[in-house]
C-alpha cells in the first residue's frame, strides 16, 4: 500500500484502459495516458489543448443560444447521450438518471452518436 500511495486495489484499477468503450470514456483522455507514462510536459500541453477545445465548444453553444434567443427560437443546448436530468421524488434534488443506450451501442460498437471530445 505504501508503494501505491495508500490507494486501495480498486482505486488503483479504476483508470485502467478497457477495450471496446465509448470514445468519450475518460480513461481514453490523452493527457492522462501521457501523465501515466511519466511524460509530464507533453501531458500538460495536451491538457491545455483539451481545455481550450472545451472552451471553444462552450463559446459556440453560448453563441448559438444567443442567436436562438434573438430569433425567438428555443435552444435545447447539450443533451447527454445516456443520462437525463430528473427531480428526485424523495429529496426534490436534480439528479441524473441513466436513460439507456450505452450497452446497446457497446454491443454493436456503434459510437457514431458520440461527440469528438478529445
From TrEMBL:
Q: Which InterPro entries match?
A: OSBP_sf, Oxysterol-bd
Extract the Pfam families matched here.
Oxysterol_BP
Q: Name one GO molecular function term.
A: cholesterol binding
A GO term from the CC aspect = perinuclear endoplasmic reticulum
The highest taxon in the source lineage is Eukaryota
Q: What is this protein's name?
A: OSBP2 protein
**Originating organism:** Bucco capensis (collared puffbird)
Amino acid at each position: 500500500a505504501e508503494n501505491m500511495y495508500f490507494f486501495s486495489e480498486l482505486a488503483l484499477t479504476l483508470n485502467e484502459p478497457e477495450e471496446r468503450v465509448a470514445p468519450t470514456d475518460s480513461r481514453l483522455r490523452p493527457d492522462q495516458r501521457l501523465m501515466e507514462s511519466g511524460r509530464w510536459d507533453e501531458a500538460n500541453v495536451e491538457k491545455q489543448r483539451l481545455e481550450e477545445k472545451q472552451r471553444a465548444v462552450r463559446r459556440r453553444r453560448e453563441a448559438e443560444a444567443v442567436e436562438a434567443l434573438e430569433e425567438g427560437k428555443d435552444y435545447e443546448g447539450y443533451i447527454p447521450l445516456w443520462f437525463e436530468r430528473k427531480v428526485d421524488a424523495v429529496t426534490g434534488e436534480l439528479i441524473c438518471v441513466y436513460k439507456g443506450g450505452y450497452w446497446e451501442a457497446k454491443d454493436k460498437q456503434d459510437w457514431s452518436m458520440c461527440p469528438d471530445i478529445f
